[in-house]
Amino acid sequence: MKTIIAKIKGGEAEPLPLPFFCSAKQLINVLKEYAPVDKTEIKEQLQKAETLSLEFAKDQTASLFLLLQNGFFVNACVGCSIKDFFLEQLKLSPDFIEARIQGVFLDGKPADDIDRAIIRDGARLTLSGTMPGLVGIALKRGPLAVFRHSITHRETGDYSYSGEGYVQLKLLNLLMKDMGPHLFRKGIYINASELAHFLGKLPAAFWQGCKSISLGGRKVPTELFNEGRWRPESSVVKFSVVSG
Amino acid sequence: MGGDGGPQINEVPIGEYAGLGGRALTTAIVAKEVPATCHALGSENKLVIAPGLLSGTTAAMSGRISVGCKSPLTGGIKEANSGGQPSQVLARLGYAAIVLEGKPASDDLYKVFINKEGVQVTVDNSLKMLPNYDLIDRMKNEYGDKIACISIGPAGEMKMCSASVACTDMELRPSRHAARGGVGAVMGAKGVKVIVLDDAGMGMRSPKDPEKFKNANKRFVEGLNAHAVTGQGLPAYGTNVLTNIVSEVGGYPTYNFKQGSFAGASKISGETQAETEVARGGLATHGCHRGCVIRCSGVYHDKDGHYLTKQPEYETVWAHGGNCGIDDLDTIAMLDFLDDNYGVDTIEMGNAIAVAMEAGLAEFGDGAAAINFVHEVGKGSHLGRILGSGAAGVARAFGVERAPVVKGQAMPAYDPRAVQGIGVTYATSPMGADHTAGYAVAQNVLKVGGDVDALKPEGQVELSRNLQIATAAIDSTGMCLFIAFAILDQPETFQALLDIIGAYTGTEFTADGVTELGKKVLTDERDFNARAGFTKAHDRLPSYFKTEVFPPHNVTFGVTDEELDKVFDW
Predict the structure, then answer these.
(1) How far apart, in whole angstroms, are the C-alpha atoms of residue B525 and residue B519?
(2) For B191-218, what is each residue's pLDDT tens digit?
(3) Nearest to residue A60, comparing CAs of A242, A183, A204?
(4) Sign of the C-alpha dihedral, residues B263, B269, B271, B273?
(5) Averaged pLDDT of chain B
(6) Is B460 in the A-facing interface, judged by CB distances under 8 Å?
(7) B334 in contact with chain A, both atoms CB, cutoff 8 A
(8) Displacement of CA B218 from its chain's centroid (Å)
(9) What pLDDT, on a 0 to 100 scale, did the predictor assign at position B570?
(10) Chain A environment of B559 (Cβ under 8 Å)
(11) pLDDT of residue B569
C-alpha cells in the first residue's frame, strides 16, 4: 500500500490510501470524490447565484424530486444540533421527525443522537425515509448499530461557532416527496449545470403546465428550457417552484 | 439420473424429514445423504429443491423455494433460494422436495414434467444450450401458460461455478434465480435442463387450524403494510433504494472494493430507477410471486418501451454498477437480463467482471466490455469459462490478489470494513460470503444468547450468530426474508408469523422453537463443512481487508480471529 497525499487548493490535505496498481483514471476518480470542500468558494458561489423560479397552475414538483438526491445547499444557522435544525429551521414537527426520518447521516456518518450531533458550517446532512436490508437496519439507531460502529458519528463537542452558514442537504427516497414541495417553494441552491441538464431532459408535458419562468427577476420563455438552450451564468442557482 | 436404462423416478414418503421445509429440508437431506468429500459435479452429490414449509398455503409472502447441494463454488454445503412461482406450485402438487440423484450415463439432456398425474422424464436434446428466456418460450408453446418452470441456462449446462437455477415469475419469465454457489452447475451435472410444474386440478394446502391461520395471516399482512419499509419504501423503490444510502455512508464497494462511495450512485439509484421504469411504461411496484404483499420488484423497459428485464435488485445494480464503475442503468439492466438468460449469479458475475477489470482486461466503467464479457460466458469461450468460474477463479487465472471472496464465494454489496458486523457474517456463514445469511430477526426480538450491548464492538459477534440462527429458520418456512423489517420492529407481527406456523402445523410455535430450528440447520451445515475439510481458518475474510484502508472513512476490518471463532459457541 502506498499513500498519496492530496494537495488541493483551499482544503486540508488528507492521505488518500490507494493500491499501488491504481490506474490514472481511478486516481482521478478518487481525487475528485474525496477532494476537501472549499467552504469559502461555496459561500461566494451562493452569494453570486442567479435566481430561477418556475410557476405552475398545478403542483408538478414531483417531476423535480430526483434533483434532491444529489444534494443542494440551504442557508442555515449552524452550530446547533440536528434536532434543532429540523425543528427550528426546516420547521419539521417532532412527530414527523420520529415517524418519517429513518436515516440521518452527518458528513457521511450515521448520526444516532440527533440531540447532540452538531451541524457545523458546510456540513453535509443526508436524510432517508426508508432503510431496508440488513445494512439498512444497521444504519438506523437500534440494536444493530454495533454492526457499523467504526463509521458512526461521534460528537466531539469541540465546535463553538454559532451563526450564519450553509448546509448541504440530500433528501432520499420517501423524503423527497415529504419535504421536497416545501423546500422548492422556499428555494434551494443547486449546482447550475446539473440543474440545466435535468431541466433539459424533462418532457414537453412538464413545460406545458408552466405558467411563467423568472430568471434573474426577468420573465423568459419556456422554450429556453424545454429545448435545452439555457446556459446558466453562475455556477450555483437559487431555484424555486411556485404552484397554484 | 444414472439409473440402468435411463433416469428412474421414485416417489417416497417424507419419513424422517417430516415437518421440514425449505432450507431445513435441503440441509437435512444433503448433510445426511451426500458424502461431504464427494465431487460437487459427481454422481454422489444430490440437488434438492424444496418449497418452504408454508408454501402452497394462502400465507402471504410464502413463495420462497430452496435449492441445496454440495457447492461446486465453495466446496461446502449450499442453500440458495428464490422467489417466483415454482415454490407455490410444487407445494400444491404435494411434493415436499424434488431430489435429483446420480449422473446420466450419456450426454442426453432431460426435461421433467410434473402434474397431478405424476412425473415424466424425457430426453429433449433440442433444448441444448438454449438460454432461459428461449427455453421458457418453448415450454410455454408445449405445455401452455399455466405452468411454472425451474431451469438452467447454458452456464448450468457448461457446469460453471457461477451458474444459477432459474424460477419463472408470475408472467412466466425466468427472472428469479436461486443463484449463489453454482447450484445451476449441479443441475447441469444431473443432465436436467428444465422442470415443468403444472398444478391444474390441485388446491391450496390446508392448515390444521384454518380459522387461526386466517386470523394470523390477516394480522401478519396488516403488520407488513403498516411498516415504513415493507409498506412504503420497498414497494416504491425496491431494494435498489439502498444505493444512495450505502454510498452516502461510505460502505458501497466501488471499483472492486477500493472505495466506499460511488460518484455515479444517484444515476443508478432506486429513486432514479423507479422513475425511469414508470416513464417508460414499466412498473416500479410488482410482486415476484402470487401472495406477495410487499411487491418490491418491478419491470424495466428499454428506451423504446419494450420489456428488457425485471427490476434489477440492489445487489445486481451494485455488482454490475458501482463495483465495475458503471453508472448507466440501461447497461446494468442489459447485464441483468443476460445474467438471467445465460443463467448466472449476478453477484458472482459482477464481482468476476470487476476483478477482470482490475486485471486490466477492460477499464472500470466500460459498459460495453462488461456486456461482452457476459456474452463470452454464454458462448462458453475460453475467457467466458474463466469468467463463469467466479471472482476467485478470475483472480487465479489473471494473477489478481484482491479477490473479495470467502470460501470461494464473492461478497455482496456491503463492504465489511465499513459495516463490520456483516463482515462477521460473511466470514463465518457456512455458505461463504452471503448478505442474506444473517438477516432475519434482531436479538432483541428473539432474545437468544442474552442481551447485547449495541455500543460495544464485541456485540456484533453475538448478533451475527443470532441473526444467522434466525435466518436459517426463516429460510425454512418459505417466507421472504424481507418480512424481517416488520417483525424486527413490530413484535405483534412476529407473533402473527409464529401463529401462522402454529396454525399450519397444529402445534404451538414459539420464539424458542425458531431458535432451535435455526441452530439445528446451522449445526448440520457446519458439520457437513467440517467433514468436507473446512476448519476455522476458512472462517476468515481475505487478509487485505485487515490491512488495506477503505476510503472515505479509512477503516479496516477490526474483528479478531479469536472473536470470529466465538460465533458458533452455543
Answers:
(1) 10
(2) 999 999 999 999 999 999 999 999 999 9
(3) A242
(4) positive
(5) 93
(6) yes
(7) no
(8) 27
(9) 76
(10) none
(11) 81
Contact at 8 Å (CB) between B56 and B88? yes
Cβ proximity of B219 and B503 under 8 Å:
no
Counting every residue written for chain B, the total comes to 570
| Cα diameter, chain B | 63
How far from each other are the two terminal CA atoms of chain B, in whole angstroms? Answer: 40
- Residue B225 CB partners (closer than 8 Å, separation 6+): B231, B293
The number of C-alpha atoms within 13 Å of B471 and in the hemisphere containing its C-beta is: 25
Chain A contacts in chain B segment 550-569 (CB below 8 A)? 550-555, 558
Of A26, A146, A176, which has the smallest distance from its Cβ to B460's Cβ? A146
The Cα B364–Cα B359 span in angstroms is: 10
- Give B483's pLDDT tier (boundaries 50, 70, 90): confident
Is beta strand B176-178 parallel, antiparallel or unpaired with respect to B165-167? antiparallel
pLDDT tens-place string over residues B246-269: 999 999 999 999 999 999 999 999
Nearest of B189, B137, B142, B136 to residue B161 by alpha carbon:
B189
Interchain contact A12–B (C-beta under 8 A): no
Confidence at residue B12, expressed as pLDDT on a 0 to 100 scale? 94
Side-chain-side CA neighbours of residue A92 (13 Å): 20
Residues B282, B279: Cα–Cα separation, whole Å: 7
Using CA atoms, how far apart are residues B254 and B324, in angstroms rounded to an integer?
7
Q: Give the Å distances, CA to CA, from A208 to A60, A220, A221, A241, B491.
A: 11, 14, 11, 15, 50
Contact status of B263 with chain A (Cβ, < 8 Å): yes
Q: How far is CA B186 from the centre of its chain?
A: 16
Is pTM beyond 0.90? Reply is: yes
Task: Say if residues B295 and B289 touch (Cβ distance below 8 Å).
Answer: no
Bridge partners of B196, per DSSP, are B113, B149
d(CA B99, CA B179): 18
Question: Looking at residue B453, what is its pLDDT?
Answer: 47
Give the tens place of pLDDT for each residue, B107-128.
999 999 999 999 999 999 999 9
Cross-strand partners of B68: B48, B79
- Give, in order, the Cα–Cα distances in Å from B237 to each of B251, B276, B298, B313: 20, 11, 9, 10
Q: What is the CA radius of gyration of chain A?
A: 20
Say which residue the cell 487465472 belongs to.
B397
pLDDT at A19 over 60: no
One-letter amino acid at B471 equals: T
Give whole-number Cα distances, B96 to B150, B178, B197, B330, B555, in Å: 15, 17, 14, 40, 46
Cα B354 to Cα B337: distance, rounded to the nearest angstrom: 18
Kindly state whether B318 is in contact with chain A, defined as any CB-CB distance less than 8 angstroms. no
Residue B251's identity, in one-letter code, is G
Out of A16, A32, A148, closest to residue B421 by CB? A148
Q: Find out whether the peptide bond into B552 is cis, omega within 30 degrees of 0.
A: yes
Give the residue from B439, B452, B450, B422 showing the smallest Cα distance to B541: B422
| Cell numbers describing residue B448 | 437468544
Strands A218-220 and A210-215: antiparallel
B236 with A172: CB under 8 angstroms? no
Which positions in chain A touch B467 (Cβ < 8 Å)? 134
Separation of alpha carbons B291 and B289, rounded Å? 6
- Angle at A63 (CA atoms; ends A58, A64), nearest 5 degrees: 105
Contact A146 B246 (CB under 8 A): no
* B498 closest CA partner among B551, B445, B453, B555: B445
Is residue B27 within 8 A of residue B68, CB to CB? The reply is yes
In 3D, which of B552, B557, B545, B547 has the Cα closest to residue B261?
A: B552
B451 to chain A, any CB pair closer than 8 A? The answer is no
How many Å apart are CA A74 and CA A186, to the nearest integer?
10
The cell for A17 is 490510501
Instruction: Provide the residue count of chain A.
Output: 244
